[in-house]
Amino acid sequence: MDCANPVQTRDFYAALTGWEIREAYGCPAVVNDKGLLILFMGCDFDYTPPIWPEESGKQQKQMHFNFQVDNLPGAVEKAIQLGAVKATAQYGGEHFVTMIDPEGHPFCLCRK
């Protein structure tokens, strides 16, 4: 995942998910119990966060995580406490909430 501050972004997702903090291929990373590895990479250019919802001619998202949670309101509150914000545009109704991480990447918290 491209970001301006890879360690901070890795730490956010580690705290959000409870996944293990690692270094991999010279990058900060997290890994889940099934072996999914996410790398957080600094940019050699000025990082521009994506726009959500997407707009023509603006920076598009590079990825989008969906995390299944047992307690959707509790997970939203935890994400906010960790530095995320609720996206202005919401399309999930009772099923999911779109959040924006501290670097500006959108992700969803989805009811199991």
Name the descriptors.
alpha/beta, three-stranded antiparallel beta sheet, 2 helices, single chain, about 110 residues, 2,3-Dihydroxybiphenyl 1,2-Dioxygenase, domain 1, globular
Q: What's the number of extended β-strand segments?
A: 9
Uncertain residue ranges: none
Integer count of domains: 1
The gyration radius over C-alpha positions equals 14 Å
User: Hey, roughly how much beta strand do the residues contain?
Assistant: 25-35%
In the CATH hierarchy, what is the superfamily? 2,3-Dihydroxybiphenyl 1,2-Dioxygenase, domain 1
Distance between the termini: 25 Å
Number of helices in the DSSP assignment: 2
Q: Could you tell me the mean pLDDT?
A: 91
Question: What is the makeup of the main sheet?
Answer: 4 strands, mixed
What percentage of residues falls in helices of 4 or more residues? 10-25%
User: Which structural class do you get from the secondary structure elements?
Assistant: alpha/beta
Q: The CATH topology, please?
A: 2,3-Dihydroxybiphenyl 1,2-Dioxygenase, domain 1
Global morphology = globular
Order of helices and strands: EHEEEEEHEEE
CATH architecture tag: Roll
Q: Give the spatial strand order of the biggest sheet.
A: 6-9-8-7
Look at the structure and give the CATH class: Alpha Beta
